[in-house]
Write a structure and sequence with these properties.
This protein is of the alpha/beta class. It is built from 13 helices and nine strands. It has two domains: about 260 residues, Rossmann fold, CATH 3.40.50; about 55 residues.
Amino acid sequence: MKKLKNILVIVGIICSFSCEKFEAEKSSDAFFQVQIDEAVIPVWVKGNTASQKLIVYINGGPGLTSIDMARADMFGWSKSLEKDFAMVYYDQRGCGNAQGNIDEESLTIDQYVKDLDAIITVLKSKYGDASIYLMGHSFGAFIGANYLLDSNLGDKIQAWISIDGAYNFDYELSWLYRRTFLENIAQEEIGKGNMIPHWEEALRWVEDNPQILTRQQKNEWRSFLGWPGEIIIPEEIATLSIRQYLSIGFASTYNPFPSYLSSNLKVVNDRLNKDAEGENLINSVKNISIPALFIWGRYDDLIVPEEGEEVFLNYGSDASKKTYSLFPNSSHEPYISDPDRFYSEIRDFVSAY
């Protein structure tokens, strides 16, 4: 059985579920590790724990790191979300600061859900009566949704925040949504008077291609939007200063450079995407009833908002307890392209619940 390369150095204390509770100070900066079998999952609680509201951030990818993102303050959350609430960052098994000699066979959605529950169990032990919120982006939303669909686990969570979330890995269905997305975007752009010949050609193409199945069709679809969708919106890029780069490289509990150069990222990505292939949670979310905020970028051509609206409509909470917020100038990462509105939406939602 293959194992991921062990390129990490263990630093810090591995906390069991029986550790003493942390102080609920106004400004917390607590780092601990949770051991699950041979995996060691790093967790960083950062921000306002006195709020008694903990937001567990589940990053996408699969295979990315949220610890380094938080260390570099890549999205500026130290000056926004962390002022109002406590953010909980963790690196999923096989990724970034996560450690241990991990069997590749353990890289499954089911195991990632169990890892998340182990973290939440520790948080509940350490922070007493604090409310716990899940916030999943992209593939992280798929992990979070699977967690919430487990009737034994979902009751531990106060509310759900989904950001351009992946709920469907039925690829033929995804391309039906993407076809509708292209049709809608073309009509909107023509209405604005933008690149009319280009978008009229896109509408003719949509009419001639009721299904998108072949690689050639997918490339043609992409050609109308750009690689990525720069024809409709500039690429969302989070910039880092030299100081931020150095903070990642020299303040991490591991050496990130060989980690990113290793095959771990590809292994995690391939394994989890393969495990999720064919799964469709769009109808299943009717079984989740906690309050929810769905944030989507209008120009997200990876997981299109037409698909997101279907998830929202099927979601099981009362209409008064679920919100769909479409960011008109954003793509797949609205916290980069519209950080002020993103912060405002999260702040108001979490404060309400």
